[in-house]
Amino acid sequence: MTTNRLLLRVAVANVGVSVLVLALKAVSYKVTGSVALYSDALESIINVVTSLAALWALWFSFQPADQNHPYGHHKAEYLSAVLAGVLIVVAAISILREAYFGYLEPRPLEAPTLGLAINLAATVINLGWALLLIRLGTRHKSPALAGDGRHLMTDVVTSVGVLIGLVAAVVLDQPLLDPILAAAVALNIIWTGIRLVRESMGGLLDEAVPADVLDRIRTTIAKGAAGAIEAHDIRTRQAGRAVFVDFHLVVHGTMSVSDAHDICDCLERELKNAVEGAIVTIHVEPDDKAKHQGIVVL
């Protein structure tokens, strides 16, 4: 099975899992009437929307480059991550509103044991699925799936906090803890949304690859460009699973075009082996253009 097909299947399953978890949390809220569980259920609605957005983004990003998008559609995944972040913040505002009214008129939970048990089952499902999404998204460089997984993991943490707090509210007979917990969940959700938007904007604004990847690129160029003199003006950016690398390669002025092309072909293969998803552009220059800085070819 190809990587693209695997990721699409995971994205489809992600929608199904999100709907299941939403149904369980909605039932939990209806059974108890808890404002905190309402906040948990509302975040699950956002999970369904973002999972649908991630599915579309993956499908769109897999489309080949065309005349209107000559560099491909890789950045579509970042758009879904930005959408997820914005929707998370909107959900948090709604939760704060409900928490405010719950604080003004606190009421005891109805059927707390059944409601909390249902919510716990939903949380366990979310935990297992979040770990899988983070692992697959990281391995296959999919910002949409990895971002969804991190969002679900935050959901798991807040759900556990809500469960512990509601158990304390029932045991201590303190219904005021319910809206207070809901407000705490909302603030945590806001922080998650802001962080997710920040990470996605980095991809949209063409941030350079991490330092360890850049070191790998520089080492590969130094060892794989036999016959050249130096490489300079290296630029990198990452768009989803694609890593764009471009630089100037200095060769002897008397070298034939064919020989220079052979060096570039060899170097491109080496970079693609060293960096998954690398798309390489090399500008060849004669030795009088050497800057005597950058990468000296070994």
Automatic annotation (TrEMBL):
The chain crosses the membrane at residues 7-24, 44-62, 78-96, 116-136, 156-174, 180-197. Keywords: Membrane, Transmembrane, Transmembrane helix, Transport. Residues 15-205 form the Cation efflux protein transmembrane domain. The keyword Transport applies. InterPro entries: Cation_efflux, Cation_efflux_CTD, Cation_efflux_CTD_sf, Cation_efflux_TM, Cation_efflux_TMD_sf, CDF_Transporter. It is a multi-pass membrane protein. PANTHER family: MITOCHONDRIAL METAL TRANSPORTER 1-RELATED. NCBIfam families: CDF. This is Cation diffusion facilitator family transporter. It comes from Terrihabitans rhizophilus. The lineage of its organism: Bacteria, Pseudomonadati, Pseudomonadota, Alphaproteobacteria, Hyphomicrobiales.
